[in-house]
Amino acid sequence: MGRRTEGEESAAPGARPLRRDAELNRRRILQAGREVFAARGLQATLNDVAHHAGLGVGTVYRKYPDKQTLAEAVFGEELDEIAAMAREARAEDDAFAALAGFLERALARAAHNRGLRELMRHGTLEGAALTRARREITSHCEHLVARARTQGALRDGVTEADIAPIAAMIDAVMALPAEHPSETWRRYLAIILDGLRAHPRQAPLPGPPRTPPARIPGADQP
Q1: Would you say residue 140 lies in a domain?
Q2: 54 is in which domain, residue-wise?
Q3: Which residues bind DNA (predicted)?
Q4: CA separation for the pair 10, 195 (Å, rounded)
Q5: Strands (E), 27-165
Q6: How many C-beta neighbours within 10 Å does residue 190 have?
């Protein structure tokens, strides 16, 4: 048996060994994909990713033959990491605090990731890894909601089905122009979370709006 050369890694029996530089390129492409999709959204191209990664377009196409394949790989990892956040939240004693903390962490990630928000909004990517991660996130959230209800922390009538629309509402706030968007969405998340509580608290709201609320036509008419 020949000696494995430096730069190659072991692989499953019968599989061609993956060279270390090839694996490094794969990780480099995925990282570039994360950064490009986060900044430009899902309309970014494989050429954009190749340029950002400092690699030839052919190298990217050999690894990922189309944008859909790369986007599914990138966001599969993103959703896996969000699923891990939800899984960790289940270990907390206070289920409502755990659910609120998870929503804030997950939405904070989406606030700076245009592609992730587009994925959440439209769900146009449906690879197996994405489907599995979505199901895991949903399962963890259902568990937290059920436990918060059992603990008496959740107002009557709130169900697991309310979580996705809440995320969509916060996404809409993130899309609004604002001087400090990170403060704005956190403010409205706090308002929504207080509305979910069985016993709303009067904690100060984060980040007051920087501009007056929009005038409602006819509101000042007798």
Answers
A1: yes
A2: 19-65
A3: 45-64
A4: 54
A5: none
A6: 18
Q: How many domains would you assign to the chain? A: 2
Nearest-angstrom CA–CA distance, 24 and 55 = 12
**pLDDT beyond 80 at 15:** no
pTM of the full structure: 0.78
Cβ-contact 201, 193 below 8 angstroms: no
CATH of residue 101's domain is 1.10.357
Give the single-character DSSP code of 65. Answer: S
Same domain, yes or no, for 78 and 172?
Answer: yes
Decide if 3 is inside a domain.
no
Statement to judge: residues 178 and 147 lie in one domain: yes
Residue pLDDT, tens place only, 72-108:
999 999 999 999 999 999 999 999 999 999 999 999 9
Beta carbons of 73 and 113 less than 8 angstroms apart: no
- For residue 95, which phi and psi values (nearest 5 degrees)? -65, -40
Q: Write the pLDDT tens digit of every residue in 190-204.
A: 999 999 999 887 767
Q: Could you tell me the two tokens for 96?
A: 């409502």
Contacting residues for 10 by C-beta, under 8 A, at least 6 apart: 4, 17
208 in a domain, yes or no? no
